[in-house]
Amino acid sequence: MFNKKLHELLQEEFGKRGIEQIEIPFYVKENLSKELRIYQEKALKYYYANFDSIKQRHLMFNMATGSGKTLIMAALMLDCYKKGYKDFIFFVNSTSILEKTKANFANKYSSKYLFKENINIDSKNIEINIINNLFESKDECINIYFTTIQALFSLFKNERENSLSFEDLKDKKLVFLADEAHHLNSDTKNKNENEIKEGWEAIVKRAYESNNENLLFEFSATIPQEFNVLEKYQDKIIYEYTLKEFCKDGYSKRIFLVKYDNNELEYRFLGAVLCSLYRELLAQKYNIVLKPVILFKSESIKESMQNQEKFIDFIDNLESLHIEDFYKNINKESDLLNKSLEFFKKEYQNTYAKTIVNFLKNNFKPLFILNTNDDKELEKNQILLNSLEDKNNQIRVIFCVDKLNEGWDVLNLFDIVRLGNKKSSKAITTKEAQLIGRGARYYPFKSDLFYFDDEFKFRRKFDNDLDNELNALERLSYHTRNDVEFIKNLNESMNKEGLLFEEEKKRVDLIVNEKIKEIIKNSKIYCANNKRIKKRDLKNFSITRIEMEQKIKGLQIPYFSNSIKESEEKFEEIKEEYDLQKLSKLDNIDNKYFLKAMNILGVDFKNINENFNFESKKDFIENCLKDIYVCFSKKQKFNQENNLEIAKYVLENFKSLKQRIKQEYEVSEFQTHKFNIGNKVVFKNNDKFEEMNFEWLYHKTFCFDSNLEKEFLNFIENKKDEINKVFSKWFVIRNEGFEEFKIYDNRKDKVTYAMGFEPDFIFFGKKNKDDDNFLSIQCFIEIKGEYLAGAKDTWKEEFLETLKGKIISTEYNKDLTLQSLPFFINKDIKINDKFVSSFDEFLI
């Protein structure tokens, strides 16, 4: 278990005096160009409390993205200078962030310059002096050496003439400031007693420890959750201000999700520019200076450049009819878009569509578009990106891939548009969540028509007055294709980033039940799984018609519609919409739509017919495509436009399956290995775990995803006596994502081949008739809500059925028998009849 964090120790140290009573010195406040917010003052008060008592020299400020960590750094520089420190080494993770940071600390003409134009301490004017080595340091200056972690590492590992070296550090009092410091933990994360590695982290530590008066201040919004990293920072975190607190306190925009059923990019283009124009004109109405910015996010540099050209072409060819048609498809729930229509009609009446087109063509010219992917324009782009709020900055649209996920300070970003359709992954949605966190920064505004005090200017004002049209300036719109899987994964990533107004995830220690420890101690236990071990190159593989049809069978057809929905994103767990899917053939779609789709897509029938021997296109359509079972949404309407889109989607998938260079995973045979789970650490929401008293449950603490899992546990508890009659030793383990129990579908004739999952529970047992202490049975059990037990997850149940009675040898020369049960769906015996009857058979 971790000790108390530093700021908690300081609370004890100061007791009734209270840290709040500490005064931030005049020379700090008066030399900053911006006023400190309440939480920033609190962070500095903990800093002063530390130096008054504990005197910890290495501190971590764990503060949310957008909370103004750089202003705290500027305050620390002023205070350290007062304490006698004149030389500061400031390092970040990337060159792009570095250029922006230099402007913040050293460019007096930048709107984001952090100091007053004239810094005055003890009646002396202090200059900011950027240095390339410590020999350039000047008295009565704040000397800053700006670098990246990588460059600093290279500098000290490969010392060169006229550059910073370890020798320079002797007898120097230095302050090290590390921004985005979560990157500075590679050595700690990979800590291995048998391997001592001098990486980035070790080099920085060595430099910091070169003088026992040196100071090291780290800043990060996201501290890695590995045990070693958390242990490292347990006595260094001086102040925490989470993204959740930041948002809850009103310092962020509210986040709304705009979901487009139509897959065409033009819909997202138009939705975003209409929202942006509405905000711009609304701000003008209230005498608010605002130029809203849109960010279009693509999946590759090539796609970003292509999407930029598509956008320019789209604006060039925009007509009034496009505006009118777009608004016809707006869902009633789409609050912002509906309000924009009301606003436009009220202001411009019957000519609203024509007026909008003129505005959009003027406001979104190529001159006002910036693509951040050109490294040759990096320096110029950084200046533009760092000054988007400035009056003379005309950029309205940004096209990017990944360059803006970290270290980007922007307040007037109001629309983020996901243009890609790549399948969701944790890596993708984590980056999206980081970007959303940056876009959610609040744009402070005031108007001649109303008054707010200075502090309230930086916070949301209309949470309790949602009818006020100005709440449109307090929301961020995230535009995306209505992809259920992506949105579900994004919710999880947002949760991890802190943009979820729920209980935070906390560390839970899973301790093995004492009774289970005795079973393990006195038994020989093996568990079995298979592996997805490698890819096989099948460039020359000739796919058969049967395999092709099997691969495309069960294809999930997106819901094709022009409907657009908008809702505030609470980032709560959402129910997947797979219960809305139904299996159906394509035989209700006329041949003409497939033929037209083939022409549009440029499908070469000779190429597609290779190895298949279809007599004609008609034969291919009627006896292959229209004979395959696919999944449709029950909401899907079949009309001329939608039928064509469905035909195109099916053909595109068929074509890609046929033509791509196939690289597929191979699945190994099931193998046994010694059971060695032990105590574990997981991170769960506060309301997701509780102590359980079941003597047969492996861990004392049970982390549940649904009440259905509790129902299953109670079912086992009620069956305990029956199980004891058959098994002399047994226990059940809740699978908390343990790799030991992940299994992969090894049925080569199935489209789910090589897909993996982690069964929810695993039963281990030894029957009474067995004489030795070998637990010879391992049974996989999956809990499944009724809405998931259908089309999406049927393959799991079918695959588990194939494992029944499978016998695998162990090195102990004993056979381990695998068993499985159907899905546990409901505690109701009638609904769960299949599971109950199979469980009774299991006990025979």
Oligomer: single chain
What is the percentage of strand-forming residues? 15-25%
> How many beta strands in the DSSP annotation?
33
Mean pLDDT across every amino acid position: 81
- Strand order, biggest sheet? 3-4-5-2-6-7-1-8
Sheet with the most strands? 8 strands, mixed
**CATH fold-type name of the largest domain:** Rossmann fold
Protein name: DEAD/DEAH box helicase
Domain Helicase ATP-binding: 50-241
Keywords: ATP-binding, Helicase, Hydrolase, Nucleotide-binding
Pfam family, one: ResIII
Task: Produce the secondary structure layout.
Elements: H1 6-14, H2 26-29, H3 38-52, E1 58-63, H4 69-82, E2 87-92, H5 95-106, E3 119-121, E4 124-130, E5 141-148, H6 149-157, H7 166-169, E6 174-178, H8 186-189, H9 200-208, E7 215-220, H10 227-233, E8 237-241, H11 243-248, E9 254-260, H12 265-285, E10 293-297, H13 301-316, H14 320-328, H15 335-348, H16 352-363, E11 369-371, H17 378-385, E12 397-400, E13 413-418, H18 426-439, H19 454-457, E14 475-481, H20 484-497, E15 505-510, H21 514-521, E16 524-529, E17 532-538, H22 545-552, E18 564-568, E19 581-584, H23 591-601, H24 605-608, H25 617-623, E20 630-633, H26 640-659, E21 662-667, E22 671-674, E23 680-685, E24 689-691, E25 701-703, H27 707-718, H28 720-726, E26 727-734, E27 743-744, E28 756-757, E29 761-767, E30 774-775, E31 777-781, H29 794-802, E32 807-809, E33 815-820, H30 833-842
Parallel strand pairs: 1-7, 1-8, 2-5, 2-6, 4-5, 6-7, 9-14, 10-12, 10-13, 11-12, 13-14, 16-30, 31-33
Antiparallel strand pairs: 3-4, 9-18, 15-23, 16-22, 17-21, 19-20, 24-25, 26-29, 27-28, 29-31, 32-33
